[in-house]
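Assemble and predict.
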Amino acid sequence: MSGAFGGPSAAACSRGSAACRRGLRAASRHVPRAASRHVLGLAVAANLGLAGACDAPTIPERRLDDTYAFTLPTATGDTLVLRWPQGSVVRVWAADADAGAPLRAAFEAGAALWNERALFGEYRLVAAAAPAEADILLAWAPGPLPVDTEACPPLTRRGTTTFCLRDQDGRRRLDVFPLLAGEDHGQVRMLVTFLREAGAPPADLAALVAHELGHVLGLTRHSPNPLDLMYESPGMPPALSLRDAATVQVLYHTRADIVP
Amino acid sequence: MRFGTCWPGSCFILRHKAAASGNSGESAVAKGGRSAFERAVPSFFVPASLLALCLAPGTLAAQGPRLEFRLGVVASSALARDEVASTLLRQRVAAPVSREVLAGPRPAPALEMALQLPLRPGLAAELALGYSRSALGVEEAEGSSWDAGNLYVLQGLLGIRWQWRPGVGVSGAFGALRYGADGRAFFAAGGEMNPGIETALDVRLPWHDGRTGVRAFAQVHGFNTPALRRAGAADGGVMRFGVQVTQRFFGGRGS
């Protein structure tokens, strides 16, 4: 600094010498106005120059091997894309009377895994405040359910996501499971049920719930790779692989045939 | 001494680089680990720091500081882009897949407070703090769009204002911006400080003794988030621009 402007250094002045401060003041008077213009010019040029080079962080395209199939096969041989509308908040009610609410805890953990991969806010899984507000119901089966399943009975497996389709206004939609209690008809469109093992929650409940939440989001098929959460028998602990993340990201930028 | 403590760790610039290079296997670390933006910013940062630090101790004498409030509208280029799927993948899906997804802040009101310290006639150092709140808008190339939650931007800038003509000033500043979005979307794994520079032009209006004015600015800053890096996105740049009405509350009259 002293070399540039012919005065004492800032370090010297930091020791408090009055002569130093006077010297520095004198030196600053000799700062050429061109220097300030130079700085401003640099800022303008840098701004303009960089503006042209500005390219937002870009997620590269997913290749074939980065994903697995997610479309829903039909009896007629067609495949359909099922997903929630982009930007949706999907409300989930865990009908969990067990001590410690294991279903609710597993849902919170599973939802966090999937929500973290909604990079553009395509969906968000949240806990519903009441069954009447829920889009999805998580429950133990067999057991008392707060919805009528007569028209669309769930299968009994370790973990199952059940939904039924209907045509409305020329579009396929998910049928509603009517609530059994209360005046409100409800809006539950998917029922996710889990089997207890010897009367207790299964040891891999967290992985089961996270896996079923993948189906809820629209990953209707299983991955052929055992390392993926959406493999038929997910491993422990539950974690999304890069393929799981890439697949759900492509799904939510694919035009849907079925919107709940 | 002051340079010694600041330059080697050079504040946000190098921390930004460290964060970028800490993520393995990504293209963000091309050309010696620094993006084009990171390599270009010091060309402004270094001389601006030199000038500000040289002038500050000795020249804040006779003229008092000025406090300026600014209220305006700010817009921005995209914060992130997604190329979604390759041609082969699109063919396998057998349903229309979006070609491109862009996300960025919706135009929003912005509030800013600036403290100007006159250094010499026509030249002032300026410290500005700003805040704006809007929505993180997402748009697909095919036309659909949605909001992915709230988005706020905090910024701190240090710069120099030069009176170019009577009542007309130009300024240049450097500093940092931080975005937040309630932990959603590509801020789910957090955000980080983004180094940036700003240029601005302000004009004093012939009312209230020139204490009222209008100001237009353009900013360029680096940007990335841990979630985007994990998805393979390299560091990029973002441009913000806006117009503001300014009001000085004490200190020198309009110049």
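Chain B touches chain A through 89 residues (CB under 8 Å).
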